[in-house]
Write a structure and sequence with these properties.
Blueprint (H helix, E strand, L loop, with lengths): L3 E5 L3 H11 L4 E5 L2 H8 L6 E5 L7 H10 L8 E5 L4 H10 L3 E4 L4 H12 L9
Parallel strand pairs: 1-2, 1-3, 3-4, 4-5
Helix pairs in contact: 2-3
Amino acid sequence: MRHKILVIDDEKSIRLLLENFLGRSYDVVVKTDGNEALEWLEGNLPDLIVCDIQMPNIDGYLFLTNVRQRGYTKHTPVIMLSGVENSQERIKCYRLGAQDFLSKPFNPEELDELIKKNLFPIHYAVKW
């Protein structure tokens, strides 16, 4: 059974890129904003979440806060994406409970490595 990844981004090009790239190895569910994703999470549990920060309605920070406050998604790994690259934004994401942070534009292979690191933390290293 393949791992399920929830992708949340308001940019159609990013959603398509992630759906096509990650869809080779994972079951990918795509949502356009935080509200839509929170509604989906009411009846579903992904293995990992990839979430943009700058979105309409509920931004990535508020979405992440909601995810961490829910009992059943409290420990779901979250990777945040942002078009703004600065230390303060990273720190805010980590303090809210994100496992990783990736700046846009990003290399999809780097994102895949972050996903593997979070899905398989002990067995991630190819060589010890």
